[in-house]
Amino acid sequence: MKKTLLALAAFTAVGITTTAQAEKVDVCVFDLLGKSGESYQMAQEWALAAKGWGADVNLIPRQDEAVADNDFKAGKCDGVFMTAMRARQYNKFVGSIDSIGGVPSNAIAQKAITFALDSRNAAKMTTNLSGKKYEVAGIAPLGSAFIFVRDKSINSIEKAAGKKFAVLSYDNAQKILVQRVGAQAVASDVSNFVAKFNNGQVDMVGAPAYAYKPLEIYKGLGTNGAMFNFPVLQVTADFIIRPEQFPAGFGQKSRDYFVKNLPKSFAMINRLESGIPAKYKMNLTAEDKLKYQKLMRDGRLELTKSGIYDAGMMSVLKKARCSVDKANFECSLGGE
């Protein structure tokens, strides 16, 4: 009997040790500035919290987003932080938060992200693609994207006709919208789209305030450039994991962490947006704002119909927009 009790005690001790031992996982983090960037630093804070959810995270910095994605696909990483425009391939519902004109303010962005990450939407966070399972374990806001021009005389949609606009080659949404305004889409990557603007290869570029200082957008603006003080889309970063490589229940704990930290993230974004010098900010007329809104709505409808955006998320975003601005022209229209 004594031997049996000792054996049970030993087995229990081994079981406790095994349970307490965190699972080792590798996570690739895309940040143009590598370990010194704010995205990587945010990931470090998250990794520290993840220890409490049973994961021992090894962060792998990647300054090229395509490399981070390819490493994830090849199994070199168990999870990856990257922009939603590239992550949309893994989850269209979440990836559609970055739709053109879908989220015209940081307040609406906070509502949309909070809703998406709520436990009631847990089923929508998981997808099966070609026999492989993926899960969205977090969404981080990077702020509204604004249009920057090298010449402030390009101050309307009509004047954008024929101008060169840097677009991310893997995001069909950008290409379609640029073509709709008559501009010339110049295929680029997240690692060089601003560089093309700064060295004069393109006349226009869209980027969040998050990129203003790190990518030195002010060099492209010079003394004659401007920023349209009108958000065209909300830029977010998604955290995608292979759930089988993480402890059970990890995904929702991680999503709850991201929601809890949203106020802190948006406080940072607001600080960065206010840090862009007022001399560059060009306000649009009420007539031009309405023109842009209608143009972007038409683009969203077209892109949703063609399967690029998720119809369910488009409905969620419209409700969020109209809860803030009930008088908006689109609130009485169907289609989203």
TrEMBL record:
Keywords: Signal
Signal peptide: 1-22
Pfam families per UniProt: AdeT1_2 (PF19582)
Protein name: DUF6091 family protein
Top-level taxon in the UniProt lineage: Bacteria
Record carries keyword Signal: yes
